[in-house]
Amino acid sequence: QQQVKQSPQSLIVQKGGISIINCAYENTAFDYFPWYQQFPGKGPALLIAIRPDVSEKKEGRFTISFNKSAKQFSLHIMDSQPGDSATYFCAGGLIKAAGNKLTFGGGTRVLVKP
Amino acid sequence: EAGVAQSPRYKIIEKRQSVAFWCNPISGHATLYWYQQILGQGPKLLIQFQNNGVVDDSQLPKDRFSAERLKGVDSTLKIQPAKLEDSAVYLCASSDRQGGNYGYTFGSGTRLTVV
């Protein structure tokens, strides 16, 4: 059962452009929604995260927009740079005393052309 | 701060053979996770430990996969016997009890190829 659906699977953007990745979730019990960035040969690294009581969160060139009623959230990468070329994963997270549990989307491969 | 260490980085085995992966989490992190990442997909949780106890192993194929975390620090994940569909990257991650930054720290993974 895929609880987090991510689109598109891949996208190409010119340097300086905006990359937009969308996710939809089914489990309304999720407590937070993180985005991870993964470079080839490396593990995913936390990029930015949002709680469901917030509609938008911005950190530098990265912004999460969250729509609770639609059960959707998105990542916007402003002024995309070649160094942003990576695979991005959205996730739904459950906060538990024994440790948080993440359910990942399928990933989006982003290529930023110089 | 040292990251999550995993070894080996790569492993190629024939089907029906056995293989083991090792993980050393960040010092002091009580929670340890093993994820399976098949090429082109997002990571999928296999097992979660809190100290040396299993919290969640509902998605671990227990007929062939096993994992342990002795003394609540290092962990090993074993596959016996391996199948072709086990080809994937096996990621280890750790977090502190509260996970206050909402994130885990992942290791670089072990890429397993079963031929």
Overview of this protein structure:
Chain A has 114 residues and is mostly beta strands. Chain A has one domain (4-113): Immunoglobulins (Immunoglobulin-like, Sandwich). Helices cover 0% and strands 55% of the residues of chain A. Chain A has no helices and eleven strands. Chain A has strands spanning 4-7, 10-14, 19-25, 33-38, 45-50, 56-59, 62-67, 72-77, 86-94, 101-104, 108-113. In chain A, a hairpin with a 6-residue loop joins strand 4 (33-38) and strand 5 (45-50). The N and C termini of chain A lie far apart (38 Å). Chain B has strands spanning 5-7, 10-13, 19-24, 31-37, 44-50, 53-56, 65-68, 75-79, 88-95, 105-106, 110-114. In chain B, strand 5 (44-50) and strand 6 form a beta hairpin. Chain B is mainly β and 115 residues long. Chain B contains no helices and eleven strands. The N and C termini of chain B lie far apart (37 Å). The chains are: A mainly beta (114), B mainly beta (115). Chains A and B meet through strand 5, strand 9 and strand 10 of A and strand 5 and strand 9 of B.
Helix and strand composition category of chain B: mainly beta
The low-confidence parts of chain B are none
* Topology of chain A as a string of helices (H) and strands (E): EEEEEEEEEEE
Query: Low-confidence segments of chain A, ≥5 residues, pLDDT <50?
Result: none
Mean of residue pLDDT of chain B? Answer: 92
